[in-house]
Specification:
The protein is mostly beta strands. The protein contains 5 helices and 23 strands.
Length: about 475
């Protein structure tokens, strides 16, 4: 009762704030400064959802500019550095007890903080850097990408060189709001049943090089990538169960994988039909990246031999997105269906000791098998559908339904979730969201650490400047 009273009061305040928020407020983060336009010019209903213009700007490699640039011998750089700050705070209420639980209401004020630098680097070259100091593979740099993008007579194409602490291979460049890009998704909670976020190419540390092309009718992105993380361990479900040891595969510097890389493919058609802006596509990742480490970066039992980890990244996702006015107001619908193949226990979770030639001597190399998206032997399948409807310029309602079979990391193998939420734009660059999720399990209820709460309320507040 106390929980729902709190939720009611917060929602009431949010509703009042949404109706009476100042109407002249405009957002001016990094890209808005470069384009000299307000944030809603690139976003649909509320940030971070991209509209068609926002997708076009992203496809250009962030190079479009309406400001004075410094030009000299190939240099074409904005006179001022484009920067922005994002601060996020949350209050989560659920059923997890204990000192670190959220049954009493878990406050996290300012815990989600990032500093962005990005925009035009030169003609046909752009970049984006996110700094947050979260202990990611890149140190204080959470995400970074360098993009070369050229207009080939109506088709924009080029390459993306990137590294991300948690955005997966799709961080290279993606245009959907379906969850295929973690930074372009409008939900703060309930990600357990949002396939792209939980099991798809939008998850996990990665670095790679991708080629892309797109226009008003299609989008293609193909590339090679390696999963990266400073320490793959049993807690991360990437080492065999029970190893109880860390495997520092990269020494904190990168993926010593050579050309033994995973592959990523994204294809989509992006037509406009009857006033609706449509995106229909598929994502596929596959292959086994072989990551190597020297002896001083390995720790398994008492061995000090060189070691190796083969990481499986097979997953297939189909997604759909539609943006259109309904009854005079904007509405967005996204849908995802996907499958993540299981891999045999012989390849996934066992330890093999291999004899290998190390220079002129014979040594033993530990070969670990793991998977980035599915460490079990059974295929994971699922779907989710999300709707967002703008009642006013400052107030939007949203709903989500998701269902996953053979879900990893929970006591019950099957899980469904229903979510409702409200998004209030107090200003174009200030947003308050309230979300309520209910989870259903087909078997044993999860214990702490095994999965989400049976019900979760999330109040999320973000501002950018």
């Amino acid at each position: 009762m106390k929980k729902f009273l709190t939720l009611f009061l917060v929602a009431a305040v949010a509703l009042v704030g949404g109706v009476f928020a100042p109407k002249s407020a405009e957002a001016v983060p990094a890209f808005a400064r470069q384009l000299q336009i307000s944030c809603p010019s690139c976003h649909y209903i509320a940030f971070p959802n991209l509209n068609s213009f926002g997708r076009s700007f992203k496809l250009s490699g962030f190079t479009q500019a309406a400001v004075e640039t410094l030009k000299d011998d190939g240099l074409d750089l904005p006179a001022n550095l484009n920067a922005a700050v994002m601060i996020g705070s949350q209050l989560s209420l659920g059923t997890t007890s204990g000192m670190n639980g959220n049954n009493n209401g878990n406050w996290q004020i300012g815990n989600d903080a990032s500093l962005f630098f990005g925009g035009r680097v030169s003609t046909d070259m752009g970049a984006l850097i996110e700094v947050n100091g979260g202990g990611t593979p890149g140190g204080i740099i959470e995400n970074t990408k360098f993009v070369i993008s050229h207009d080939f007579g109506g088709v924009q194409g080029g390459l993306s060189l990137y590294r991300t602490g948690g955005g997966g291979a799709a961080y290279s460049i993606d245009l959907f709001n379906s969850g295929s890009n973690q930074n372009n998704y409008g939900w703060s909670s309930g990600k357990t049943v949002q396939l792209n976020q939980q099991y798809g190419p939008a998850r996990g540390g990665a670095e790679g090089l991708h080629l892309f092309a797109g226009s008003s009718l299609f989008f293609v992105n193909v590339g090679l990538f390696a999963p990266v993380k400073d320490n793959f361990n049993a807690a991360g479900a990437l080492l065999p169960t029970g190893t109880g040891a860390a495997l520092n595969l990269t020494g904190g510097n990168g993926a010593n994988a050579g050309l033994n890389l995973n592959q990523y493919y994204r294809v989509a058609i992006t037509p406009s039909l009857g006033g609706a802006d449509l995106l229909i596509g598929a994502q596929l990742s596959q292959g086994r990246a072989t990551l190597n480490a020297s002896a001083n970066n390995c720790s398994y039992a008492s061995t000090s031999s060189p070691c190796q980890l083969e990481v499986e990244t097979s997953t297939t996702m189909f997604d759909f997105q539609a943006q259109a006015d309904v009854a005079g107001n904007p509405m967005q619908v996204t849908a995802v269906y996907g499958t993540v193949p299981g891999i045999s226990s012989a390849n996934a979770r066992t330890l093999a000791t291999l004899k290998a030639l190390q220079g002129s001597t014979t040594a033993y190399t530990d070969a670990y098998g793991g998977a980035l998206y599915n460490t079990g032997s059974a295929d994971i399948t699922g779907m989710d559908i999300s709707l967002m409807y703008g009642l006013t310029k400052h107030l939007a309602l949203k709903a989500l339904y998701g269902s996953t079979t053979n879900a990893a990391g929970v006591k019950s193998s099957n899980i469904t979730a229903k979510g409702l939420g409200v998004a209030i734009s107090l200003a174009a660059n200030v947003k308050l969201t309230v979300e309520e999720f209910m989870f259903d399990y087909s078997g044993t209820k999860p214990t702490a650490g095994d999965g989400p709460d049976l019900s979760t309320t999330m109040i999320d507040f973000k501002y950018l400047f």
